């Protein structure tokens, strides 16, 4: 779990961060978990890897803010599979609501609204907003 959830994010980011620093902009979105906030029975290895990813996200947010790079993480609940039946309900949401809230963090999503969008665990300090790119430009994220 540490290699996938924590080291994997670090390996990818160490290649892209220099490019983002050079262009003086960027966003890194890490896919953490609700396990980042509390322990999980029989899943201590998973929870530890996600706690580590949240710490890495918060540290990068501080370190990269001077370069106009935002670093955030999303914290969805479990995927609705037979192994995880009922996890979305424990969060008081449907699997669809969790999917929409997660997608809203990443890009403009037709069903997103501030009420359903989760708050990222960390963000860099606010910076002067850049001008909006033209639709279909290369800097517009594909969703």
CATH topology: Rossmann fold
Major beta sheet, specifics?
A: 2 strands, parallel
Class from secondary-structure proportions: mainly alpha
Secondary structure tally, helices: 4
Tell me the name of the CATH homologous superfamily: NAD(P)-binding Rossmann-like Domain
CATH domain class name = Alpha Beta
Strand order within the widest beta sheet: 1-2
Range of strand content: 5-15%
Uncertain parts: 108-143
Number of extended strands? 2
Helix and strand element order: HEHEHH
Helix percent band: 40-55%
Instruction: Tell me the Rg in angstroms.
Output: 16 Å
CATH architecture: 3-Layer(aba) Sandwich
Query: How many domain modules?
Result: 1
Give the mean pLDDT. 74
Distance separating the two termini: 27 Å
A few lines on this structure:
With 143 residues, the protein is mainly alpha-helical. Helices cover 41% and strands 8% of the residues.
What is the topology?
Layout lengths: L1 H22 L2 E6 L12 H21 L4 E6 L12 H4 L4 H12 L37
Parallel strand pairs: 1-2
Helix pairs in contact: 1-2
């Amino acid at each position: 779990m540490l290699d996938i959830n924590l080291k994997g994010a670090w390996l990818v980011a160490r290649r892209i961060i220099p490019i983002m620093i050079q262009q003086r902009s960027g966003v890194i979105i890490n896919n953490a978990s609700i396990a980042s906030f509390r322990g999980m029975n029989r899943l201590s290895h998973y929870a530890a890897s996600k706690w580590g990813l949240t710490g890495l996200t918060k540290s990068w947010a501080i370190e990269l803010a001077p370069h106009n790079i935002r670093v955030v993480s999303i914290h969805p609940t479990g995927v609705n599979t037979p192994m995880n039946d009922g996890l979305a309900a424990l969060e008081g949401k449907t699997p669809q609501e969790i999917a929409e809230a997660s997608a809203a963090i990443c890009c403009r999503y037709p069903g997103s609204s501030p009420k359903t969008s989760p708050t990222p665990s960390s963000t860099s300090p606010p910076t002067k907003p850049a001008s909006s790119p033209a639709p279909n430009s290369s800097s517009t994220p594909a969703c």
